[in-house]
What does this fold into?
Amino acid sequence: MVIVRPIESAFPPSLSTQDGLYTTIIRGLNERGEAVSDARLIRSVNREISVYADYDAFLQLAHNPDMRFVFSNTTEAGISYHPGDRFEDAPAVSYPAKLTRLLYERYSHFAGAADKGWIIIPCELIDYNGEALRELVLRYAHEWALPAAFITWLQEANAFCSTLVDRIVTGYPRDEAGAIEGQLGYKDGFLATAEHFYLFVIQGPKSLAAELRLDKLPLNVLIVDDIKPYKERKVAILNGAHTALVPVAYQAGLDTVGEAMNDPEICAFVEKAIYAEIIPVLDLPRAELESFASAVTGRFRNPYIKHQLLSIALNGMTKFRTRILPQLLAGQEKSGKLPTRLTFALAR
It folds into this structure.
């Protein structure tokens, strides 16, 4: 595995200074509701290269016959069009333009071999990120007047998979780094912390599971035909419950989601809103929805994450329209009356 730094910055230092090694601290509540912390040494990274400091090394990646997957996480702003990008830039500014150049390098090196295409899996948090990235790559290919045969290869030999990523990664534990390093027995400048829960949904062919070895590993990774229901589930249950509890909990004098979930009355309000008013109007198997909801309430109780109610309240009415209103209206249509708790959240 090779990490490519897509921006022109010397900070943080290259992961290669630690031979690609770093520690992730997984912290949260286990199935019994107990606080747990698990340190995992990540050994899968071979090296990191900077596309700005070593552009030739970046292009050389395309020559590796065994390279099959391209994952990206360049933030929501990363999958975007930059009008000044050109083929001969070393490198172009935008991630889609860099990827277009890298794909053309691979196409040229392997003479357009159909079995040398890539499975491209963007993790940026935008709707249908795979489709958005594919359209931008094709746009650059046309603007740069690249050969028609390359564009055909691009469309037929490569797959752009849309994804949904769900995990809270709280990053470098600045205030706790010294104590954690003392427990580990070594220094790690790339410590990362994350919650226990994770979900990775990939829209793609079922054959992808075998290529990713998902049949060999007990991972919460789903290969699906359409990510839309899973996005709707996350928005409705996780984000919707957040938005519903904020006005109630804040006016009760609380400051964080964790405090709200430790209050018996507010916890009951949130759980009844989820199970009685949100889940019944969603289009996925109820058992699957309830399992996700159980994980969500556990995540809300995570003592390692201090999620401020006021930060969730920002742009509250806009969030209400997207996260709660669809379920509120669907519930009214289904039962003939307004769902009590979702309506109460709006009234507060």
Summary: The longest strand covers residues 22-29.
